[in-house]
Every structure is written in C-alpha cells, then in structure tokens.
Amino acid sequence: MSAVLSPMPPLECACAARRFEQVHFYEAAPAGEARFPFSGGAYRRTIERCGECTHYVTRHGMDTSGLYGGAYVDATYGDLEGVKRTFERIAALPEYKSDNAGRVKRILEYAVPQFRALGRPPRILDVGSGLCVFLHRMKQAGWDCTALDPDSRACQHASAVVGVNAIHADFVRDDGFGRFDAMAFNKVLEHVPEPVAMLRKAARYLEPGGFVYVELPDAEGAAREGFGREEFFIEHLHIFTARSFALLVERAGFRLAGLQQVREPSSKFTLRGFAHLA
After folding, report:
1. Side-chain half-sphere of 9: how many Cα atoms within 13 Å?
2. What is the pLDDT of residues 201-223, one digit of tens each?
3. Is residue 136 pLDDT above 90, yes or no?
4. Which helix (H) or strand (E) holds 251?
5. Which of helix, strand or coil describes residue 31?
6. Which of 189, 173, 181, 184 has its CA nearest to residue 205?
7. How does pLDDT run across 173-191, given as a tens digit for each residue?
8. List of residues 6+ apart from 54 with CB closer than 8 A
C-alpha cells in the first residue's frame, strides 16, 4: 500500500542518493511504541529503503519538534522520579541481562591499550546520556565522565544520582563542550534528521588519538522479524545497515574500526563500532 504524507524535512540516506522505495506502511502505532503528544491522533507512517545503500528511513507528517527537550522523558519515564526508578532497575541487572555491561566491556577492551600511557583517567562525553546507566558503569571503571542531554531532568539525574559531570545542551545547536579522549553516541544518531552532520561535529571535541563509539539500531536484523519491532519505532528517523553505518562514518570524515552486528540481552538488534578521524 502506498501513502501520501504531509511534508517533513527530506531525509538523506547514508549515500545521499535518496533513491527510496516504500517497504512498510503503518495505519496505527505498533505495539509497545511510546505515545507522544504528536502521535495521539491520526497515525500514518512509512518505512522506506534506499535501493543504493540499503539504508532505511521513516517518513510521516507529524510534528516531532521539541521531542527530546521534554516530551520523550514525559512519555517514556513520566518524571524525574521515574527516571531514577528506571535507572535503578536497569543498573541492577546482572551482567548477562545488561546491554550496558556488554557496551562497557567492548569499549574497555578497545580503549585500555590506547590510553594506557595517558597518565590520567580517560575523559568521555556521552551525547544523549538519558538514564546514564552507561556512564554509571564507565565511572565505576575509573573514567572521567560527562553526560550531555537536551532534557534538564536527565542532566539533573546524571549529576545528583550518578555523580558525573552534566551539560544541559543540544549537541547539534550548541557548542563549547570541552575536549575528550572518547565520545559516545549510544542509540542517538538514528533520532536526528542529519546524523552525518552530527557525527562530523564530534571531531571538534576529540583529543588527538581519541575515538567516537557509535551504536545504532540494525535494520537488517530487525527486518527479519518484522516492522513491528522497536528498531522501527517512530522516534527512529534513520535505521541503519552495516553498509549505511560505514558510509555514515566515512561521510562524517572518520574511518570505521571494529564494526559488529549483535543481538543484545534486551533483544535489540544493534550495530556498533569505533570511529577515528580519517
């Protein structure tokens, strides 16, 4: 079934060809998708795939402006206490059930040999820190951690509960965040209209020899189980494949290392890898 939707900002695929074909049409929100103020009425949305680089995008006519300044936390966690409760529940998961445990283990295995000669704890910036479970574990590993999030409640939580530095800012619009040995975009770049530009901006804040760790939803794994999966939920404007992940990194001025396709303990299909300045 084809659909004609109200205009939304044109989304590029990873190769910038924009040769999309529709592969799925939603007439209603899939089960489990958060209900946002903009998605409470008529719901019509498509998933489209680039015939050149296999990248997926979502397309719809709903107004998502301001989602990460407050609406996302409202719909997902409720309030600041809800953020804390969810953090405590996820932080308490045993390692074999924890996505964050695997994430931290992967970063430490990769980074420790590179940063052994630093003579100080490595500094890491987590862009879109959310619940801050990731930085909670990185802090336990001895790293100097800074959270950045556009929602003031996430920053308050990061500072007061997790005990890390916090920056209340929009990474795309704001500037002056400092310098870091590592930066993390954990399931963040799929949420923004221009992920190439966002990743490119990370170069301003990297110390020489530093790296960016990137995690993205894996469209290829998810599509095998159907378009009702969370990888294709409305807040994900882009859904990547291994090929489009590599093109994203290249177009942003980095080179990709250590790309992996994994299924996490939470059942999420995930692409993850490290980006170094080319």
Report:
1. 11
2. 999 999 999 999 999 999 999 99
3. yes
4. helix 242-251
5. coil
6. 181
7. 999 999 999 999 999 999 9
8. 219, 220, 241, 243, 244
Q: Which has the higher per-residue pLDDT, 8 or 26?
A: 26
Quote the CA–CA distance of 44 and 28 in Å, as a whole number: 7
| CA-wise closest residue to 56 among 248, 215, 201 | 248
In what helix (H) or strand (E) does residue 20 lie, and over which residues does it extend? strand 20-26
DSSP state of 225: T
* Predicted confidence band of residue 257 (pLDDT cuts 50, 70, 90): very high
d(CA 180, CA 187): 19
Rounded to two decimals, the pTM is 0.93
Joined tokens for residue 90: 């996820």
User: What's the pLDDT tens digit per position in 25-45?
Assistant: 999 999 999 888 887 678 899
Q: Write out the DSSP string of 123-180.
A: EEEEET-TT-HHHHHHHHTT-EEEEEESSHHHHHHIIIII--EEEES-TTT------E
Pairing of strands 123-127, 56-60: unpaired
Beta bridge partners of 276: 255
Element (H, E) at 113: helix 99-115
**Residue 27 token pair:** 């007439």
